[in-house]
Specification:
Elements lengths: L4 H5 L9 E6 L3 E7 L6 E3 L9 E2 L2 E2 L7 E2 L1 H4 L1 H4 L4 E2 L10 H4 L9 E2 L10 E3 L2 E3 L1 H20 L5 E6 L5 H13 L3 E7 H8 L9 E9 L4 E9 L2 E10 L4 H15 L3 H6 L1 H18 L4 E6 L2 E6 H25 L9 E5 L6 H11 L12 H13 L16 E5 L3 E6 L7 E7 L9 E7 L9 E8 L12 E7 L5 E7 L4 E7 L7 H13 L1 H31 L5 H18 L4 H33 L4
Parallel strand pairs: 1-11, 11-12, 13-18
Antiparallel strand pairs: 1-2, 2-3, 2-4, 5-6, 5-7, 8-9, 9-10, 13-14, 14-15, 16-17, 19-20, 19-22, 21-24, 22-23, 24-25, 25-26
The structure holds adenosine-5'-diphosphate and magnesium ion (MG).
The site of magnesium ion has 5 residues, from loops.
Keywords: ATP-binding, Chaperone, Nucleotide-binding
InterPro entries: ATPase_NBD, Heat_shock_70_CS, HSP70_C_sf, HSP70_peptide-bd_sf, Hsp_70_fam
GO molecular function: ATP binding; ATP-dependent protein folding chaperone
Length: 618
Amino acid sequence: MAKVAINLSTGSLQQEEIIVGIDLGTTNSLVAYIHPDTRHPLAINDQGRGTIVPSIVHFPAGQDPIVGTEAREYLLTDPQNTIYSVKRLLGKSYQDLGTHAADLGYKVIDDNSEGLVKIRVGEKFYSPIELSAEILKELRARAEHALKTPVNKAVITVPAYFNDSQRQATRDAGRLAGLEVLRIVNEPTAAALAYGIGLSPDEEKTVAVYDLGGGTFDISILRIQQGIFEVLSTNGDTYLGGDDLDRAIINHWAGEYQLATVLFQNAEAQQQLRLLAEQAKRHLSTNDSFEAAFGDTRLPLTKAKFNELVQPLVDRTIASCRQALADAKLTQKDLDAVLLVGGSTRVPLVYDSVSAFFQQPANNTLNPDEVVALGAAIQADILAGNRRDVLLLDVTPLTLGIETLGGLMDPIIPRNSKIPTKAGRQYTTSVDGQVNLKISVYQGERDLVKENRKLAEFDLRGIPAMPAGLPKVDVNFILNADGILKVEAIELRSNTRQEVEIKPQYGLTDEQVEQMLMDSLTHAREDVSARMVIEARTVAEQMLYQVERFVAKNGQHLTPEEITQTTAGVDKLKQALTTQDKDTILKAVDELEELTRPFAERVMNISISQAMAGKKIL
Ligand code: ADP
Ligand code: MG
């Protein structure tokens, strides 16, 4: 195993090559780099447009997407084609989103499956990965423009609680934007690095990172030892942030100045008031009073009133802090520092409340909007080998994973993971009564296993016969410090198990590793398209299977007209499946779903009422 993948992956790394650090945020994104002369991290401000790029993508009809402040203008005038908060959807299925999908201004496709969500824009379907890639492309373009040099490598940050699937989605977005993602770093880790914590090997510290952004709140407790950042606990609220502070102001004004009727009828007035509320909030971070004109109405707000309005929201964040501390089994006195991250920590009440709770002044000396991106730039610099004082760890140079439906690569241990490491995922059968499951282990960065390197294959036999989807098979990858990979598969109901040991680096030269990495970048577009077609086909096939089974079972509850319509929808989907076009396929899936949902609900009600009727009530 090599010391740090950068040596393997970039035999061609030139000393001056720039690796950027990217904060891909829910509300705002930024890109930063280490200035070659000062050696300090700096957020990129291209053409004086500011360092912050709102994470919003607008699709004008028939033209290339627009990202950032310009895209934000369309939130009001063209909400269906203007996508915001896409980070919330990354790596998630429709089921994961639950009721929150309805709150978004654009259309998230309910394909009623556990597959990853898609967003419909006009006649096209986008995955959150593609939409995030648009934001990353914009950041990359700004960096290239400002630095006048090509940018091909990046470190990207994610929340500490992101799971494997969300991290992988972030990597894929980077790759799609033409960036080799050298590492995915936790946002609180990046913040600590920006504050210079964890840069010297003999340092031991415990810190709390309080991050209040636009729509989310995260508190993380980290232990830093010998350059290793361990997340002791995380807590927070994925639906609490600066937007809620704005809403508290709007509600106050609406109540106090009888604005309800104006707002109810007028979307433009709503938006205008929202902007005024945000302006008021920002103003009160450094002033004691604010006043705006809204039509003929004067809208005043004092800092004292604002504090009173948002106190309950701030209290909720403090309750999360208390829980995080308890989960880490620590008290306030164990913390060496409390770091403030996110634009909303500029609110003085937040600063005061956090400092009071942790019994020490919180640290806010760095710009809270930029601190995560600055830390990512420092991490990039470490990976580039520019900081010899920082301890380097063994990492695995290529992704390890297994084959799933349609010949897709499902990554289990991503490349550049520190070793030793352990990771796993749960799988199930796809056919009723299936008793064997083939596990094929691959190495490489491509989306289709046929482009990757096959390491091993074995059958897990003796799974008890059950309907498809019921068996639970855990597949675990354990990579030890010597680079030996143990793959074990366990069917949990019967405790059937099977394992193999492999040496993934055996017979692989540095040049081959480098070639594999290069290929994954040059083929990123076509790979992601191929993956999306396969995923769309899988969704379509499941849908057809379900609808046909449904009609066979419940045909008597449907009118002849409904049956004709359904048959037409099924035929259309089958026709769509003869193409290799994911938009055509997903559109047919979407239509069939819309068509059959009312029947399914009706039949469900019938069977529930029958069940009720059959039940004896004592
Ligand atoms: P995210 O990490 O979720 O992308 P940010 O950290 O960029 O978000 O935070 C954005 C939020 O910070 C917005 O709600 C914005 O209104 C708020 N914000 C920015 N500046 C200030 C300020 N001076 N006072 C209060 N809130 C602010
Ligand atoms: Mg953030």
